[in-house]
Specification:
Elements lengths: L12 H6 L1 E5 L3 H25 L1 H7 L2 H13 L2 H7 L3 H10 L4 H11 L11 H25 L6 H30 L2 H9 L1 E3 H7 L1 H5 L5 E4 L7
Antiparallel strand pairs: 1-2, 1-3
Amino acid sequence: MTRPPEASKSPTREAVARKEQLLRRFTVAEFWIHRTTAALMGTAIASAAFLYLPTLGELVGRRHLLVIVHEWSGIALPLPLLAGLLSRAFRADLTRLNRFTPHDRGWLRATLRYRPHLSGKFNAGQKMYAAVAAGAVLVMIGTGLIKWFPKLTPLFARTGATFVHDWLALLLGVLIGGHIWMASHDPEARRGLRTGFVTRSWARQHHALWEKNNPGDHRVDDDPAKDL
């Protein structure tokens, strides 16, 4: 009898695909900056909702406590970002977010026409979101301080601060809701923030210029799907 041919010992395509190279996207410091900022922002928004909507306020009842939580969570919002300035990687990402380059303008034009376009580590939409959110937080803190210490400003300033604070809070809530909705549809992006690494194929698809300029600082994952 003839012996059956031995199975090939060379790795299959599936095995090769499972061992996909990962690129470092964020550091541990950046993870905690994002997580802490998100916790403070969530606390400020939730406490504002309980203060603004009577139906929700009745569920808690302790309005004075809600006011204290809202004030201090809001005033503490810049602290994680300020502490993050000690991280070189975070400072480098801030520089990237603050630079609007020609390929960002091309990305915006292509996106409005539903066409793909190359982007760096952060695309133009992410840069615009970061700029608007940062500016809104600063204005919210300023108008919040006017409401916190009403005796320091005249009536027209307090009235204007209340108007700006309330409507800007609504805009910021919509922006953050959109941010969470988009993140919920991209598990690889969430993995990148949670573990610090993304697959090279994802980076090539969504941030091709960044992927091209980062041949190193990677590891090989036996099963990328397990962290999704």
